[in-house]
Amino acid sequence: MDWYPWIVTLHVLGAFLFVFGHGASAFAALRLRRERDPNRIAAMLEVSTASMWTMGIGWIVLLAAGIVATFIAGLWGKAWIWASLVIFIVLTGYMTPRAGAWTREVRHAIGVKAPYSDKKDAPDPTPASPEELDRILRSPRMFEVSAVGGIGLTAIIGLMVLKPF
Question: Do the Cβ atoms of 32 and 41 come closer than 8 Å?
């Protein structure tokens, strides 16, 4: 039995899960720029956090199935595989802390602890003034992160479809 098509299908499904989960988080983050009600901000951040599980599972399936498919097909000698993998890892290393720091800052500005970085028994942060919250929410960081992610995703798709080198 030829496992390659099955593993590639799993790879594509992982990519779908990753983009699905990540998209929910990205849209919530971009929508936050126009929101000023702390309760609504907290709700959007909860949706974003919940979607991260789907994104994480998709990330693992995408990466693992991609590596397995590359071994099965004997593609490690192709530069497009390495370029795709490097872009994927660099994007993850760039976007995760960059976006995470901003959402942590927003959470703190509305007086809510960040789920993965703040200790559960720590006191809630002191909410920021409306002016400071506005400054944080209007930051262009999510546009920056979205643009970098979109360009990176487009590059990876291009490399995988076109296999230019």
Answer: yes
